[in-house]
Amino acid sequence: MGLTSFVFGKFLAFAGINLLFTGRGPFKEDEQEYTELEKEMFDYAFSLGGPVGRIASDIIACGLWMRDHFVYKLPATRPIELVEKLSGKARRYVSGEVDAEELVEPAANTLGLVLGIPSQINKFFFNAYDILFNGMELSLEGLFARRPRRER
After folding, report:
1. At CB < 8 A and 24+ separation, what contacts does 11-17 make?
2. What is 58-124 written as a DSSP string?
3. Alpha carbon distance 138, 17 (integer Å)
4. Fewest CB atoms less than 10 Å from the CB: which of 37, 104, 117, 148?
């Protein structure tokens, strides 16, 4: 019993620390009512198995309908994602599908990357802006990550 609680405690501690470092709210639920902490503990256990564990984790997560479970991304892909998101928003702005206000956030994120400003500062700023001017409710999740558009 003591060994089991020790191992569970280590899994819980490392999963919680990882959630803090990645800026995600630990108790946020997805559509299938899995919390981020549950998904992270699930992923952490399988990550100890190396590449085989990663494949097993993906297969089992799909079977449990955890399709949006966290997949570790290489930091080198972040600039590509930001530029892609910015160019997509700019293209939609030029065609008239979105207004200029929706272009500001991707532009600020890309500029922050170029200037070396942590993305967490942009998340704080835009969450604060939505709380003050767009009627979004103050929440603990706002300290960890950018809230989805449907919650703003």
Report:
1. 11/41, 11/44, 11/45, 12/37, 12/41, 14/44, 15/40, 15/41, 15/44, 16/40
2. HHHHHHTT-TT------TTHHHHHHHHHHHHHHHHHHTTSS-THHHHHHHHHHHHHHHT--HHHHHH
3. 23
4. 148
CB-neighbour burial class of residue 51 (10 A; exposed 0-12, middle 13-18, buried 19+): exposed
Burial class (CB in 10 A: 0-12, 13-18, 19+), 107: middle
**What would the pLDDT profile of 10-48 be if each residue is shown by its tens digit?**
777 777 777 777 666 677 776 667 777 777 777 777 777
Residues 69-98 have pLDDT tens digits of 455 554 666 787 888 889 999 999 999 998
Give the three-class secondary structure for 21. Answer: helix
